[in-house]
Amino acid sequence: MEQKTTKPQTFRGVVVKTAMKDTATVEVSRYVMHPKYKKYQTRTQKYLVHDPENTVKVGDEVTIEGCRPISKLKRFKIVTS
Q1: Mind giving me the DSSP string for the chain?
Q2: Residue 5 forms part of a structural domain
Q3: Has residue 47 been placed in a domain?
Q4: pLDDT per residue rounded down to tens, the chain (81 residues)
Q5: Burial class of residue 25, CB neighbours in 10 A (0-12, 13-18, 19+)
Q6: Is the pTM of this model over 0.70?
């Protein structure tokens, strides 16, 4: 039986908060068309991201990647700063 190997989800976003230990808040924006009105709009979502060495600062653009659950709300880790 063959095993499927899948790539984890990756997003590019901006760090908006680093107040917690080993955690950063990253805001990811995407540009989508409204289904009814056909107007483009920017939708944003914030993710809690694992940052073990506290390396990122507010305003940094980072790439985040899905990983195993680290806590109740953290499911992503920082790949590149």
Answers
A1: -PPP--PPPEEEEEEEE--STTEEEEEEEEEEE-TTT--EEEEEEEEEEE-TT----TT-EEEEEE-S--SSS--EEEEE-
A2: no
A3: yes
A4: 788 888 899 999 999 999 999 999 999 999 999 999 999 999 999 999 999 999 999 999 999 999 999 999 999 999 987
A5: middle
A6: yes
